[in-house]
Amino acid sequence: MQKRILSAALLMVLSGCAVAQKKVSQPTATPAEQRLQALQIRQQLEQQSLAGNLELRNIGPTVMSGRISDLEVSPKDPTVFYAAYASGGLWKTTNNGQSFEPLFDEQAVMTIGDIAIDWNNKETIWIGTGESNSSRSSYSGVGVYKSTDGGKTWQHMGLGDTQHIGKIIVHPTDPNTVWVAAVGHLYSSNKERGIYKTTDGGKTWKKTLYVDDNTGAIDLQVDPQNPNNVFAALWHRERRAWNFVEGGKSSGIHKSTDGGNTWTDISTASSGFPDNENVGRIGLSLFPGNPNIMYALVDNYDRRPVEQQEDKPEMLDNDLFTGMTAEEFLKLDDKSLNDFLDQNRFPKEYTAKSIKAKVKSGELKPAALYNYLTDPTAERYATEVKGAEVYRTDDGGKTWKKTHDSYINDMYSSYGYYFGVIRVSPLNPDKIYILGVPLLTSDNGGKTFRNIEGDNVHSDHQALWVSPDKLGYLINGNDGGINITYDDGKTWFYANNPPVAQFYSIAVDMAKPYNVYGGLQDNGTWVGPSNYKYSLDWTSRGKYPYERIGGGDGMMVQVDWRDNNTVYYGSQYGNYTRLNKQTGERTFIKPTHKLGETPLRFNWESPIHLSRHNQDILYFGSNKFHRSMKRGEDMETLSGDLTNGGRKGDVGYGTLTSIDESPLRFGLLYSGSDDGVIQTSKDGGYTWTRISDKLPQHLWVSTVVASAHKQDRVYTSLNGYRYDDFTPYLYVSEDNGKKWTRIGDNLPAEAINVVKEDPKNPNLLYVGTDHGLYFSLDRGKTFMAMSNGMPAVAVHDLTVHPRENDLVVATHGRSIFVTNVAHLQSLTPELMNQPLHLFAVNQLTHSSSWGEKRYTWGEVTKPELTIPFYSSAAGNSTIRIKTEKGEVLKELQDQSERGLNYVSYDLSVDAAKANAYEAELNSKKKEGEEAAKVKTAQDGVMYLQPGKYTVEVTTAGGTTETQELTIKAPERRTRS
User: Fold this and answer.
1) What does pTM read for this prediction?
2) For a pLDDT cut of 70, what percent of the chain falls above it?
3) What CA–CA distance (Å, rounded) separates 139 from 813?
4) What are phi and psi of 774, to 5 degrees?
5) From 623's CA, which of 81, 238, 824, 962 has a CA 20 to 30 Å away?
6) Kind and range of the H or E element at 424?
7) Do the strands 481-485 and 474-478 form a parallel or antiparallel pair, or are they unpaired?
8) Nearest residue to 346 via CA among 3, 596, 604
9) What is 316-373 written as a DSSP string?
10) pLDDT digit string (tens) for 874-898?
11) Residue 881, strand partner residues
């Protein structure tokens, strides 16, 4: 009987070990020396910056956190612990997570793979930089750092080219002996991986375990009773932009009995441990009460056997259509064919009747159905991987036994590379926890498991501390932050205060005050007010100022400025939605291909762009360009493939990453792809011209930006992160891409994620890199750093609000920052040639509450005026506040810097000037008016009264400029 199938296409799993790839020429990985030098260059650009005094303020959110990579808890007081974030730095709490202090903000990198605290040696902190999860946003580190003063200062201790560190452990009694498990480069092969050991506090290191250039060390365990016994988990992985080999035969467990100097493989097939090409990431946990007992959590990429299915003749198999003739196809049962179309989600326009008509006419061949479901660049598998498995040894690694008979379903799926943590309770060798998408526990040594996530616990678990003193006391770190339980997961509380959200994108609306929108890694899409300031008073009001409006991994956002109500937001791989905020109505948006075509390819962060010329028009990128004239509905495909065509692998590749339209000309469009292709269209997307052949090839186009000041000008940033190449590739073209010029030559070796042009000043550019924010006042010839108030965190996206002149910065690890750049926009060459320029000062309204407390236990109300000025040279400046007649009421001194300066003035009057000030106020008194009295307020300060004053600034060179200051009288209520 002819086989007729199972249902849809064979299971297409974006995971597993792919077929061998052809060797391709790729950029050289950036060496550690150059990356450490980048820190010095960044610091120089900070010191030379004309915007060093322009402060960025964090506007949250805080309730939605970022990915945790490690937790270290005090053995004496568990309310004291350190939290390491994948891209948000190191934080410490001394009050059980009620508040945190950042400790690792200004080094070469902020990404952390693991930390170790020497609690017996003044809390010496060791940091292994570079997240070990091997995700698409796992930033690379520069080795090991050490602090002996609680994180106030740091020493770089070497191992700079390891890039990603899985574990770091300090000897329990010798503070100078430290072991490091180095995973190695993520997107390239290198020798700096394996196990390293120091016996002199990090001055020198010895690599004691090494297998090959693609196998690194991911975990370590040290026997607390005999530190000569050390266990290491090795992991073979090869990640490329288009493919991920998640395991290999060199993955396994090794043991040392001489303190990590020599090693023996204890995971051979004869031991009972998996030993083949499909062994992936391994996590270890040693039971301290009996170090012969150890658990291993294995990501097993072996395929599950094909389940026997009952042969149902009426069920059609996708593979069947590849060799089917038209005559055979026309004989198929209509009901079976319609069932097949439904099961595989073909658009409703395709029915058995309509398809048969096209096959009969010769317009289609039966193979078109197979092609519709089958991406020729994607790896295809008949079954899913085995996934997470738990093994246990009771004899120190001589033999291993899998603890469970059935699969641990919905634990890892095909992305066990993202997890890998297992913990055994120090109080019970049969009580274990395994971390994956859910958080599971077993009370019987891993035979059976149960989920202990609570309603307020985020999925995707990365770190777990298990109390050595109290059963069920856990501190859990996940992709949403930190949760704490005292009853083994029955109830949890959320310990999220740091602003460490990982944003991919940012957008603003035109409301007053305007709102900020952004997509977060694994945490959906959020919207909140631009004037947000951190406070816990929302807990008593019941509503946090930010609101989540979308799920999944949040991606790009576009807002219709005509109503500030229509929002387009998305999740991974092109799944977008149009939201009506007022009604809550949602409309799903995603382009589809036609029968006869192969599936579209979508990037993890598929680009969308709302035309500001007509905000009913939405542009959308897959590997092709799509347009809707009806707010996302009736999406048309206008182009062919705008990439290099994709590559065979298990990671989506050959996709668009950026779309932009000229603000000056409707229909002048640009697209950029993840494989380095930039194209332009001058007719609204119908025809395209490739313009990137003279640029470096095969790099990720992180942004392509059409100028708002010159129609033919376009900027682009290329990103070599996926080759471990951190060169700052930045270019401009003045002729629609016919010729490109490299700019940003003085930028440090930091991969560029975004470039944006200022909407007001054509010479002002902003660049966000993996380690900070930079700006240029000469259209990219030279750059300066903008870092006041913001750590050296990855900047993924930014925008300038066209009305408020606020620069809004989306970071991948420290939430959102905002600063007003109106003064920066004013820095034209003409202004900067002046020795001094005093900007206008804001008008204020007088208040009788200045210097007073609103109630007995309240804070004193303090007025503040910022006096902004530009100085062409550093030096002491004198600021005077004068009356209209020239009486000096206050004199301030400021050690001004070259560039923008902001002097804070509290509107106070010097006591010695009180009589003269009062006399001048009364000289204007009209007949019958009460005489003015200058009195001190409750805080003992005299404040300016309503009136007009002069602000005068004089530089060290003697240049003086003035501006008027007006203090309005408060409006008084009158009775009608």
Assistant:
1) 0.95
2) 97
3) 11
4) -135, 155
5) 238
6) strand 421-424
7) antiparallel
8) 596
9) --GGGGGG--HHHHHTS-HHHHHHHHHHTT--TT--HHHHHHHHHHTS--THHHHHHH
10) 999 999 999 999 999 999 999 999 9
11) 890, 951
